[in-house]
């Protein structure tokens, strides 16, 4: 009985391969997570090659596959779309609150708008930015996604400035622009597939 090892690829018919044929196979077609490798007693494979391929097979087994990684990215986009929808609803509620306030916002009123913005509206903007910068999911209209995400940042910065200026009508205008941007973002065809 030989003390050298040879790799046997598990397939419908296990193959005994020499070191050269193993190296050629790896150069032509890389291993996938589905390719199982076992070490068996046989002549022809060096210990170094056997250890490399064993480590590779363990790594491929533990590493998530492409479809798994894609589904994780799609789930992240779905979660962020849900955050945008929540922020959109909260923006509508804030518009209702601000309409009930005096023309010139008081100290508590403008601080309320600023706190509300940081708690409810900012996470929607961050979700848009995440979707715009992610790479795990292909978006056909990625330029529009990035443009709207950047515009939303501008709307929130202007909302902060207008709230500090204590002018209710200007605050309402910026809130309306935020709502329009969020609705436009959610209406994009590449985002629509994640809203179902």
What is the overall silhouette?
elongated
Main sheet specs = 3 strands, antiparallel
Write down the secondary-structure element order: EEHEHHHHHH
- Poorly predicted parts: 1-17, 31-42
Overall mean confidence score, pLDDT? 78
Alpha-carbon distance between the termini? Answer: 62 Å
Strand element count: 3
CATH architecture identity of the largest domain: Up-down Bundle
Helical content stands at 55-70%
Indicate the proportion of strand residues. Answer: 5-15%
Read across the widest sheet, the strand sequence of neighbours is: 2-1-3
Query: What count of structural domains?
Result: 2
What is the CATH class designation of the largest domain? Mainly Alpha
Number of helices: 7
What is the fold named in CATH at topology level of the largest domain?
Four Helix Bundle (Hemerythrin (Met), subunit A)
Rg, nearest Å: 28 Å
Fourth CATH level, the homologous superfamily of the largest domain:
Oxygen-evolving enhancer protein 3 (PsbQ), four-helix up-down bundle
Query: Helix- and strand-based class?
Result: mainly alpha
